[in-house]
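call fold target=Guanine permease
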Amino acid sequence: MEKLLALFKLKEHGTDVKTEVIAGITTFLSMAYILAVNPSMLAAAGMDQGAVFTATAVSAAIATIIMGVFANYPVALASGMGLNAYFAYTVVPMVAGMGITDPWKVALTAILVEGIIFIILSIFKFRETLVNSVPANLKYGISAGIGLFISIVGLKGAGIVTTDAFAIVGEDGTATVSSSTLVAMGDLGSPQVVLAFVGLILIGVMWHFKVKGAILWGILGTWVLGIIAELAGWYVVNPDAGVYSLIPNFSSGILPPSLAPTFFKFDFSFVAGHFVNFAAIVFAFLFVDLFDTVGTLIGVADQGNLLNDKGELPNAGPALMSDAIGTVAGAVLGTSTVTSYVESTAGVAEGGRTGLTAISTAVMFVLALFLSPIFLAIPSFATTPALLFVGLLMMKSVLKMKFDGDIADVVGGFLALVMMPFTYSIANGIMFGIVAWVLLKVCTAKVKDIHPVMWVAFGLFVLRIITLVAGV
């Protein structure tokens, strides 16, 4: 035990083994949905669903262990949402349109190259310098923005917030989809919505009475209530509508599916014949992962009071290297880009402060390989209360923001805050924040305040904007 305390410096961080383990389990339960979502999404791209499940769990465990041991941060990693959607619904169809067989192999090749580039950037400390060069107001805006982002992710997962879309049928019988607003309230009478709100109240009550593991118990309590609702006939299972049983099903056994269908399945021949297209694919993966990771690490570190007096992230190098190695491992195993997870803030909110939290999360991913029916039965509406409550906690960073003084800091921080939830992307929030910050520094004759690495980030974002405008 003493060696464990010394390795992770638990005393120095004001924590203990029990707190760290509970925090790690909480983080896992908040991000366990990826074990269901990722295999389903990549299966749509032509990959073997069982193999992707195993690859997702194993790559998450590997990357998270590296993060815990070498960076000593309470940050978990797994295949990133958004990146897997780009993989399945943009890259694969585009490559398939070129007549390439098994286009998902090209996407995995791009992820491998992206990971190698990240390792190189991490060796030269470019990513570390970027993290520590982001102005304080931008850091706090990013942290609060992530709080809003994970809140809307949770609201969407439970159906509390939904797309405001309806069909208008013309005289000729054709229908066009329209909307009066971008989002709308879901069905308040649905069991998912009701139970999500009940779970939030449960967490709030337990938090008030300082119950240890309040967020974890909130997730489990909501899930149990869901099972009761299913048995009572209120929660109606309908797979065609995406409503699955909440009761674990062990009929298929507990051994994890083989990795063989996706292991080391690369297509390097595509690179030689379609270099420009391949470079564009790699850049898109590189861009989103780079700044999502930066934003996540800043947000988690701020939530856990891990930033130093200068607002910098100590030991950022190993943390970013862990992310890069995880990406390479994920590509080799057969899954989309592995990246740091913002749901790590759920564990931090439970008191997680060291790499032992990450190790605990990694162990849960390993167990998930053999107990997948249990973990996959936890629905998204059961994690919604946790995401909402953590979002609430992260919003405290707004109190640290300055809304007067240097206009570049003010506008940059504000855009980072609002663009994340409103564009449904952490990377977009950082993009708008940094571009606005640099432009305002230039326009207010404060060019000397701009760190060279911020110029590089600005250039990358301008290039990304050009590619977005060009439809790449």
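return ok
The mean pLDDT is 84. The first helix runs from residue 2 to 8.
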